[in-house]
Write a structure and sequence with these properties.
Elements (H helix, E strand, L loop, with lengths): L11 H74 L3 H14 L5
Length: 107
């Protein structure tokens, strides 16, 4: 870099060169930030797609889980119905004794 006389007056040309240099530096800084932001936009776009896919999968799981819940309720209902309709061992023995008394097996 050439030595300049610090006491010399600043010319319009010197001022324009300084302003241009500053503006180029600022432009480079903005360009770097723009590239970073563009990269972030792409990454965010990819994440949005993945999240959308996960939402669909979760929605499908909700549907399947609701079906399982319905199936469990049906099984419980059938078990309760079975318990109500099925006599205990003592009730069965008493009923069998009454039937055998009135209708003995011929053997």
């Amino acid at each position: 870099m050439a030595k300049r006389n610090l006491n010399a007056l600043v010319t319009v040309k010197m001022l324009n060169e300084a302003v241009d240099a500053i503006l180029r530096g600022v432009e480079r800084m903005f360009d770097k930030q723009d590239k970073r932001i563009d990269g972030l936009d792409k990454r965010i776009g990819g994440m949005d797609k993945r999240i959308g896919g996960m939402d669909k999968r979760i929605g499908g799981m909700d549907t399947r889980l609701a079906r399982v819940e319905t199936d469990v309720r049906d099984v419980r209902r059938r078990m309760i119905d079975h318990e109500v309709d099925t006599p205990t061992r003592k009730e069965f023995s008493d009923l069998k004794a009454r039937v055998d008394k009135h209708h003995p097996l011929v053997g």
